[in-house]
Amino acid sequence: MISNNLLAQKKWIIWVIVILIIASALGVVVYKLLSASPASAPQVSATPLALLPTSTPIPTDTPAPSPSSTPAPASVNIEIRNGTHTAGLAQKLKDKLTAEHYTVSAIGNASTQDIAKTIIYNLNVADADAAQKIAAELSANGESTLPKSEAKSSADIVIILGADAPAMLK
After folding, report:
1. Measured between alpha carbons, how far is 68 from 126 in angstroms, rounded to an integer?
2. What DSSP element (H or E) covers 80?
3. pLDDT tens sequence across 71-87
4. Are residues 84 and 26 in the same domain?
5. Beta bridge partners of 121
6. pTM of the predicted model as reported, rounded to 2 decimal places
């Protein structure tokens, strides 16, 4: 009888040892995984929040600007065409946009000078935010393709000024 009891105790000890070995191996694997990329691991403050003074703001993670946000004005290439008989309108808008740090590559006349409303033509999908911003500033409508009567352009945005432009540029 003593030998059966001793055998049961040995089996128990063997199982405990096997479980400890497995737990240790899992612990090593988890440790390696967590310590493998410290840059991506979240930073944990050692100071409990309850001990921080109430006047100190608690830092929060703020997302970085997305690449799809509005492009820098200087990177957007703009062409302005005057679609009216009022001389100097394209230059006035060029001065205004240049002061806002936009790049105006060319000014000139539209194919016709009887355009009623100013239209912003966004020819580059990546510059849609900038085109919408300019359209909002000028209270103008936006389009994605130039009329067939207009010469093609290498600019990202083409603005054709209409009869409503003088009021916009005051």
Report:
1. 8
2. strand 77-82
3. 566 688 999 999 999 99
4. no
5. 143, 158
6. 0.58
Split into its structural domains, the chain has a count of 2
Q: Whose structure tokens read 């000024």? A: 161
Which strands, in side-by-side order, build the sheet including 141-143?
A: 103-109, 77-82, 157-161, 119-122, 141-143
In a domain, residue 89? The reply is: yes
If asked whether residues 22 and 92 sit together in one domain, one would say no
Boundaries of domain holding 147: 74-168
Helix intervals (H) in 40-152: 89-99, 128-138
Is 52 inside a domain boundary?
A: no
* CA dist., res. 133 & res. 122, Å (int): 11
Cα(107)–Cα(88) distance, rounded to whole angstroms?
A: 10
